[in-house]
Amino acid sequence: MKTVIGNRALFIRLAKILVFAAAILGATKLTLEFATLTGASTAAFGFLIIVLLSAFFGDFAVAVTTSVVATLCFDYFYLPPVGTFNIAAFSDWISLAAFLLASVIISRLTASAAENRARALMLSKSLVQLREFGEWILCVPPDQITLSGIARQVLHVFSLEYCSIHVYGEGKWQHYTGAAASDVSREVENRVERVQDHLTDLEELADEHLLGVRYMPINRGMTPLAVLAIKSDTLPVDALGSLAYLIGVKLGVRADDKRSPTPNANL
Fold it and tell me: Domain 140-257 sits in which CATH superfamily?
């Protein structure tokens, strides 16, 4: 699982690098063909625009690679002696260094702005989803709430790939999932079953980077109740913590009604 996810991300990154490197080469060819109307300064501005776009639609690694390609093209085609990577004048060295520095700074700022914007949109969406889930779970009577029902609702509201709730009791882990069995759910369940320690020892549950699954303890105050396991690339950590808190509050009410400190198999 980890290999597949890592290979896919690497392939997408390499594809973006190739696209923006090709754009740099295309801009170079275009400015050279219209050399009477353009010059080194025009090419430099064109390169910077492409670098900016690479940072916005890619990431910092894509932008830095594009910046290096742009710097090499700028050196080879526009700084004398043209056609070599040698630079004759010291002033040209300063120009090349300034161009590379400007490219990297622009890349970092643009990539950060894009990441912050994506994070803000993700957080805004998560707040709406948390409100919808909170309204649902507060309206369900305590005697009708079930762990499987909670998992199904979380899966639906947050559009997750996987969601399950695990309770440790009677010497074993009890597993409540919100979806039909899948490779991910079976692997998570198998890993959780192998854990014999206290249910809050999350480090021993599973390798989140391997499965893409994240774990959050569900507590009632300081008392551990269960473990929430989800697979999602969009739910922020803070939202995951808030989600676990809402579930913990509801399960705490349920436990009070049953005069039991933790949820049992009837949940």
Answer: GAF domain (3.30.450.40)
